[in-house]
């Protein structure tokens, strides 16, 4: 399929802006630029019953989280959400809109996690914080009007990777998870797939940018906590909803992970959005109609899972 018209228009606007690629900026410049782009192009937040910022204990200090509570009495299911940004950029603000939409559509408390970033905190710091936040939710769900028996994890891009990894960790350490929402996750440290060769330049997320992210994050490519596709056993994991984009270099590894889950007996829905680029869902859905539809669809899918349907 050809590139979506709105995606093509956004890419042309980015090129015409003269803004250098993120990987040609300093880390701080990239963080500021990424946040500004999402503020301009991301989903507008919807009203929810309550939004609370707080910190929780982590392995190397407090972890900031933002808690979104929908209308209703509860206790609600809980979605622990991890933002994207290559483990180097990103924050609670870049997923503010999507968290409100998911809270409303799924009728769930959303706990958005501001895990430590590289290069200040290289691998596996993000994994450690992500896991600690999930464990905290499992132990303290009632305190946030949540149901400890209905917990899911989710995230976009690097956050999708973290979601897959903590789902694997939770299999042995708890809490029991009901679902994992993996939005164009990076599941392998490598650049060898057909989608990398076809889409590794000109579509916002490039091979050079992924190399820049990995250069700061410094993951061990053989450690499944960096490359969950290399985990030896995917059996016994919660059901998964995997979103990929046709013109995304990460497309093939996301779909390969979905297929490995399926082969391990895990219930999987894998949905490729043709014509779309990386970031169309979580970060660009304010200017891409298909991006917003994908968020709404993910929220409704989560609601069905939480409702046992």
Low-confidence stretches: none
The largest beta-sheet arranges its strands as 1-2-4-3-5-6-7-8
Mean pLDDT: 98
Number of helices: 9
Any idea what the shape is? Answer: globular
Number of strands: 8
- State the distance separating the first and last CA atoms: 33 Å
What CATH architecture would you give? 3-Layer(aba) Sandwich
Proportion of residues in β-strands: 15-25%
Task: Find the structural class using helix and strand composition.
Answer: alpha/beta
The CATH topology: Rossmann fold
* CATH top level class name: Alpha Beta
Run of helices and strands: HHEEEHEHEHEHHEHEH
- What is the CA-based Rg, rounded? 18 Å
In CATH, the homologous superfamily goes by the name: Alpha/Beta hydrolase fold, catalytic domain
The helix content is 25-40%
């Amino acid at each position: 399929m050809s590139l979506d018209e709105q995606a093509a228009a956004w890419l042309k606007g980015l090129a015409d802006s003269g803004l250098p690629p993120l990987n040609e900026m300093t880390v701080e410049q990239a963080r500021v630029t990424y946040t500004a782009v999402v503020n301009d192009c991301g989903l507008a937040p919807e009203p929810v019953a309550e939004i609370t910022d707080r910190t929780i204990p982590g392995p190397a200090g407090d972890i900031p989280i933002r808690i979104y509570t929908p209308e209703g009495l509860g206790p609600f299911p809980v979605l622990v959400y991890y933002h994207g940004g290559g483990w180097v950029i990103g924050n609670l603000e870049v997923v503010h809109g999507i968290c409100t939409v998911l809270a409303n559509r799924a009728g769930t408390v959303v706990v958005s996690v501001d895990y430590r970033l590289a290069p200040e905190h290289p691998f596996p710091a993000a994994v450690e914080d992500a896991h600690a936040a999930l464990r905290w939710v499992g132990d303290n769900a009632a305190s946030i009007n949540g149901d400890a028996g209905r917990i899911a994890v989710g995230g976009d891009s690097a956050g999708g990777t973290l979601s897959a990894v903590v789902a694997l960790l939770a299999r042995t350490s708890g809490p029991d998870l009901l679902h994992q929402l993996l939005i164009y996750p990076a599941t392998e440290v490598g650049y060898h797939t057909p989608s990398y060769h076809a889409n590794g330049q000109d579509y916002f997320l490039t091979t050079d940018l992924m190399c820049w992210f990995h250069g700061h994050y410094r993951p061990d490519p053989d450690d499944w906590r960096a490359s969950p596709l290399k985990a030896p056993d995917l059996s016994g994991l919660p059901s998964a909803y995997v979103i990929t984009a046709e013109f995304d270099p990460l497309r093939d590894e996301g779909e390969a992970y979905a297929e490995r889950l399926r082969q391990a007996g895990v219930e999987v829905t894998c949905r490729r959005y043709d014509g779309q680029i990386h970031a169309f869902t979580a970060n660009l859905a304010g200017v891409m109609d298909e991006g917003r539809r994908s968020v709404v669809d993910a929220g409704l899918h989560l609601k069905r899972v939480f409702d046992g349907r």
